[in-house]
Amino acid sequence: MSIRIALSKGRIFDETAPLLKAAGIIASEDPETSRKLIIGTGRTGVSIIIVRASDVPTYVQYGAADLGIAGKDVLLEHGGGGLYQPLDLGIAKCRMMVAVQNGFDYEGAVRRGARLRVATKYLKTAREHFAAKGVHVDLIKLYGSMELAPLVGLADAIVDLVSSGNTLRANNLQAVEEIMPISARLIVNQAALKLKRQAIQPMLDAFAGAVAKGGT
Ligand code: ATP
Ligand code: MG
Questions:
Q1: Ligand 2 center to residue 4 CA distance, Å?
Q2: For ligand 1, what atom is nearest to the CA of residue 52?
Q3: pTM score > 0.70 for this model?
Q4: Under CATH, which architecture does the 3-92+183-212 domain have?
Q5: What does the pLDDT look like over 105-121, one tens digit per residue?
Q6: Which ligand is nearest to the CA of 94?
Q7: Which mutation among 8, 32, 88, 122 tests ligand 1's pocket best, with the greatest number of atoms within 8 A of CB?
């Protein structure tokens, strides 16, 4: 029985490696240096595919990968259809925040009922957040470097992931509202879980054990 796991390079792969190891899965190459997109592991029949972070749910939804690891940010934008989400891995932690340029009176603008221009990669999450608050927004879709938008007059505010806050500070921005805490989740294709339960369930148990031990 073959099992394919979808992962993104960078922090997800780095923080997942110890959990994979606990499940007896060790990548035979380092995705940071290898150009290969399909990487074998020490376990026969188990391979890792390297995809963009935001593409992980898509590969798992369609069964091109049986398992994957994706941030809650990415899962909310994707919608989660066809995916079983059994486990919060407590890794790649950060917060989804609203941020503005220093000096911009966000609270005041909200109180006045002003219409806000908000730039973000996370349209769905942002739309739901401001709708729940009753704030009218014009959303502008960006694919990265959201911090720039308020500095050059593209937007009044951004919705972005924040961990240390260093990038915000370096760009004269400040977080004004937390939307939600974010961490990475294990996702499983629902059909694969039924058809390959014998292979997948022990992996889920090993991940759960490693997460519990990690004390996150
Ligand atoms: P890409 O770089 O391919 O455009 P991405 O920026 O979403 O996509 P990563 O930077 O590898 O990819 O982020 C992967 C996941 O890690 C995100 O979906 C999020 O859940 C989490 N993450 C993002 N930024 C941070 C951060 N500053 N601190 C902690 N976790 C983060
Ligand atoms: Mg990135």
A1: 23
A2: 3
A3: yes
A4: 3-Layer(aba) Sandwich (3.40)
A5: 999 999 999 999 999 99
A6: 1
A7: 8
Q: What stretch(es) of the chain map to CATH 3.40.190.10?
A: 3-92+183-212, 94-182
pLDDT per residue over 154-197, tens digit each? 999 999 999 999 999 999 999 999 999 999 999 999 999 999 99
pLDDT value, residue 215: 62
CATH code for 94-182? Answer: 3.40.190.10
**Helix, strand or coil for residue 97?**
strand
pLDDT digits (tens, 9 = 90+) for 34-56: 999 999 999 999 999 999 999 99
Write out the DSSP string of 133-186: HT--EEEEE-SS-TTHHHHTTS-SEEEEEESSSHHHHHTTEEEEEEEEEEEEEE
Ligand found nearest the CA of 185: 1
Expressed in angstroms and rounded, the spacing between residue 112 Cα and the centre of ligand 1 is 34
Does ligand 1 lie within 6 Å of residue 117's CB atom? no
- From the CA of 8, the nearest ligand is 1
What are the CA-CA distances from residue 204 to residues 21, 123, 125, 196 (Å)? Answer: 13, 31, 28, 12
